[in-house]
Amino acid sequence: MALNKFSRRYTQDDSLPAAQAMLIGSGIAEEDLKKPFVGICSTGYDGNTCNMHLNRLADEVKEGVNKLGMVGLRFNTIGVSDGITNGTAGMRYSLVSREIIADSIETITAAHGYDALACVVGCDKNMPGSLMAMARLNRPSLMVYGGTIKGGDFKGQKLNIVSCFEAFGQKLNGHLSEEDFRGIIRNACPGPGACGGMYTANTMAAAAEALGMSIPFSSSALAVSQAKEEECLSTGAYLLRLLEKDIKPSDILVREAFENAMVLITVLGGSTNAVIHLLAIAHAAGVKLSIDDFQEVSNRVPVLADLKPSGKYLMEDLSALDGVPAVMKTLLQEGLITGDLLTVTGKTIAENLAHIKPLGAEQDLIRPFSNPIKADGHIQVLYGNLAPAGGVAKITGKEGLKFEGPAVVFDSEEEVNEGISLGKIKPGHVVVIRYVGPKGGPGMPEMLKPTSAIIGAGLGDKVALITDGRFSGGTHGFVIGHVSPEAYDGGPIALVEDGDIITLDAAANTIHLQVDDALLNLRRDKWKRPESNVQGGVLLKYRRSVTNASNGCITDLEEAYANARETSAGVA
User: Fold this and answer.
1) Strand order in 141-145's β-sheet?
2) Running DSSP on this structure, what letter comes out for residue 335?
3) Alpha-carbon gap, residue 167 to 155, rounded angstroms
4) Which residues are catalytic?
């Protein structure tokens, strides 16, 4: 079997002399044109700790590829830093970037006929974007995680990126001096790597390893470590094996692989962003997955990891305990994950884990099943008259399971941030942030700044928060996001008024607005969609094509056509 079955169209066809001339002109030796071409995508760029080192790692992947008789060709795509853009209008571009990343990787790889693909990625949307592209292309591929950052330290306090957001709330509340506030900022991010807790980046890296799309230890090796260097240099050998065996993402991304990923992120207490990302990856892979599948896993799988944001440990602490493979071996022994599934090593999960020891009583980062952090999963899917198409809660057990109180309503993140600083949010309130959904944002920005400010102000255990937006993996507290239908589509969340009683029950999985249907219908008749806050560009394109959060915020042509018809009818 030819290993260059895609690139040979350009390199071996005499009718395409210009293609061969340009490849030779770019530095490829003529005799190398017969070798398989490997696309090496990096989401590296300056000015962000998550991505600043990725181009160097991608060069090491290229070195390993070239040494094994293949031609590595590095290219770049974008990334948006959530940590930098959170709390600003720039955060609207974050989820949008997932689609751009997937589209651009697919475009370069397919257009240039690369035979295999490695993606070196390091931040929240990089990972699902790359996996979506791999699933669409369905040629030998794997993902290399750039690795987690080391924890910071200031005056004996362990720091991470969320420490900065919570410090802002403490400063607003008068509990932190300006000097200490600046000290936390200076020391929170001591070097390269993705945010250190079980936030979205580490959640999705762990999910990718459980899916079988990255090699063992990729998700838990530190960004600055010998293990990460060795992983990058060894990637060429794995890619060659995938080419020789013709192992494609469709052989790996099967339904049971997604179940493994859901189990792992539940045990680790991972980010709710994994819900929309795994739904989108599954859609690209042609695998049926729904938000109810996450609830089914949560019904039978406990939270065991004492990891930040709600716990005390960071990913670097898990790395010292043999990382994600040790967790997976523990789960495999308990019968919670399927071991006979193929991975990018060319071996099964069980074979990859054969020499890994399960975690025992010598550590307290991963609790025993007899003493879980929470007996069932933290990801809870809620339905009710406030979220007919569902909402997603992150309930670790520390927040309680029920909350009822009067609504205090904000129509943007800017409004709620101002409301926090002015003291509008009181104990017992259910904070409602709306018009920040996939279409309303547009882009479904994360509400990390408000939740962190609320916690920093000492209200974290005294209020609940619901939104049609989403949350950072760093968010904790009684929070419910992804409320669908969103306010921009006229969902019930658009009809809530200050003082309305909202009842949240994570035990019964319900979210209810205590307003009778007749009054809601009157409000619905008076409701008008707000004027568009974007007039053109990528955000408008996204608004016209994105589906709701319960579908993974995938961009869908049928949805785009429906929106186009709606616009031509003068509705939007």
Assistant:
1) 71-76, 37-42, 116-121, 141-145
2) T
3) 14
4) 472
Whose tokens are 């993402």? That residue is: 249
Q: What is the spatial distance between Cα 240 and Cα 229, in angstroms, rounded to a whole number?
A: 19
pLDDT at residue 474 tops 90:
no
Query: Which amino acid, residue 54?
Result: L
DSSP letter at 356 equals P
What pLDDT digit, counting tens, does each position of 535-558 carry?
999 999 999 999 999 999 999 866
> Region 402-411: what's the mean pLDDT?
97
| pLDDT tens digits, 30-65 | 999 999 999 999 999 999 999 999 999 999 999 999
Under 8 Å between Cβ of 57 and 411: no
Could you report the per-residue pLDDT of 70-113, keeping only the tens digit for each? Answer: 999 999 999 999 989 988 999 999 999 999 999 999 999 999 99
Residue 568, pLDDT > 50, answer no
CA–CA distance, 405 with 397 (Å, rounded to integer): 19
For residue 236, what are the contacts with CB-CB under 8 A and spacing of at least 6?
38, 61, 63, 64, 65, 66, 67, 68, 70, 72
Tell me what pLDDT residue 570 has: 38
CA dist 255 and 18 (Å) reads 43
Please tell me the pTM assigned to this model. 0.95
Is residue 231 scored above 80 in pLDDT? Answer: yes
Reference 479, options 293, 290, 278, 310; nearest CA is: 310
DSSP bridge partners of 39: 73, 117
105: which residues sit within 8 A by CB, 6+ positions away? 39, 41, 77, 117, 119, 129, 130, 133, 134, 137
Q: Which residue has the tokens 């599948």?
A: 293
Judge contact between 377 and 266, C-beta under 8 A.
yes
Closest CA to 336 of 263, 282, 441: 263
Tokens of 217: 């230890």
Angle at 144 between CA 473 and CA 290, to 5 degrees: 50
List the structure tokens of 327: 């967790």
Distance CA 435, CA 57 (A): 39
Q: Could you tell me the two tokens for 99?
A: 């689609």
Sorted by sequence, the CB contacts under 8 Å of residue 378 that are 6+ apart come out as 266, 269, 298, 303, 394, 395, 396, 397
Instruction: Read off the tokens for 517.
Output: 């249907």
Burial group, residue 13, by CB count within 10 angstroms (0-12, 13-18, 19+): exposed
The stretch 349-364 carries a mean pLDDT of 96
pLDDT for 567 equals 41
Q: Among candidates 410, 472, 535, which has minimal Cα distance to 87?
A: 472
| Total residue count of the chain as it appears in this document | 572
Q: How far from chain centre, in Å, is Cα 567?
A: 31
Q: Give the span between the Cα atoms of 306 and 205, in whole angstroms.
A: 18
In 3-state terms, what secondary structure has residue 465? strand
